[in-house]
Design goal:
302 residues, Rossmann fold, 2 domains, five-stranded parallel β-sheet, four-stranded parallel β-sheet, binds phosphoric acid mono(formamide)ester
């Protein structure tokens, strides 16, 4: 894994996921170490972010690395017409690793091909979000004590949800039963469903949220993403499809936990936050430890 880019969750094997998760457990116990003091981490965010960028920067800072980059491409020379290739070639001269978020699918793969330093995909359009996937796996293992033999329900925008695509693919390495709840317009893409079938696993599709409440070990809520719709009328039709409230949790399994990559808009009401099933803010905290594990592994410090 040393010096290797992470673009898609399929770039790592099951053994490699587990190695990152085990190392993240070590960082959770001891997050402040001077392991990366010789390194510079660049964070290039061409699309908005709170958790991914700041948890990467926190992870790097707590391990002693220097952090450079931008959170708004309009403050970089991209606004003068510089190409992605030229930006990457330049930043690779200033840093030891590049963490990049970009609105275009495939941009992270392209960046990894032109860069002389490893590139970590922090989300490329509606395609992949592999580091979110690893922190999701970490959160599932932490709350359930295992990754095999679980019923995982995905709710909301399964079509454009890059976190969903990455996590479904990763969970195909474990004995998962998938429950897919979405409006008809936002079903999981066929290529991801084919991946489930290729791994001899089962998925069930629903349009109503109550249908999965008693079965699920994990409910993975997602936001209907306004920014992925080219037609605002289509967004208006589906934007309030699923709203999870505390009152809906009465018959869920005792071990059930709610995950959400965040940000949320209105799909989980605030009364859920104080229930024992709410795990999404701890999930976001887990992102620091998982990203410490990734940086330390790729930079060869672990
Ligand atoms: N989960 C996630 O990607 O959140 P941000 O968009 O805030 O980084």
């Amino acid at each position: 894994m040393k010096n290797r880019s992470l673009v898609s969750i399929n770039d790592y094997t099951k053994a490699e996921y587990l190695k990152i998760l085990d190392l993240a457990e070590e960082f959770e116990k001891n997050p402040k170490q001077n392991l990366l003091e010789k390194f510079v981490v660049a964070t290039l965010f061409f699309e908005p972010s709170t958790r991914t960028r700041l948890s990467f920067e926190s992870a790097a800072s707590q391990l002693g690395a220097k952090v450079i980059g931008f959170s708004d491409a309009t403050s970089s020379s991209v606004s003068k017409g510089e190409t992605l290739k030229d930006t990457i070639l330049t930043v690779a001269n200033y840093s030891d690793i590049i963490v990049m978020r970009h609105p275009k699918e495939g941009s992270a793969r392209f960046a990894s091909e032109v860069s002389k330093v490893p590139v970590i995909n922090a989300g490329d359009g509606g395609n992949q979000h592999p580091t979110q996937c690893l922190l999701d796996l970490y959160s599932i293992r932490k709350t359930q004590g295992k990754l095999d033999d679980l019923h995982i329900a995905f709710v909301g925008d399964l079509k454009y949800g890059r976190t969903v695509h990455s996590l479904v693919m990763a969970l195909c390495n474990f004995n998962t039963t998938f429950h897919l709840v979405s409006p008809v317009e936002l079903k999981l893409p066929s290529y991801v469903k084919m991946h489930i079938k290729k791994n001899n696993l089962n998925y069930f599709q629903y349009t109503e949220l109550p249908d999965i409440m008693e079965t699920a070990d994990i409910i993975y809520m997602t936001r209907i993403q306004r920014e992925r719709f080219s037609d605002p009328i289509e967004y208006e039709k589906v934007k309030n499809s699923y709203i999870l409230t505390a009152g809906m949790l009465t018959n869920c399994k005792p071990n059930m936990r709610i995950l959400h990559p965040l940000p949320r808009v209105n799909e989980i009401t605030e009364d859920v936050d104080s229930t024992e099933q709410a795990y999404y803010f701890t999930q976001a905290l887990n992102g620091v430890y998982v990203r410490q594990a990734l940086l330390a592994t790729i930079l060869g410090a672990k």
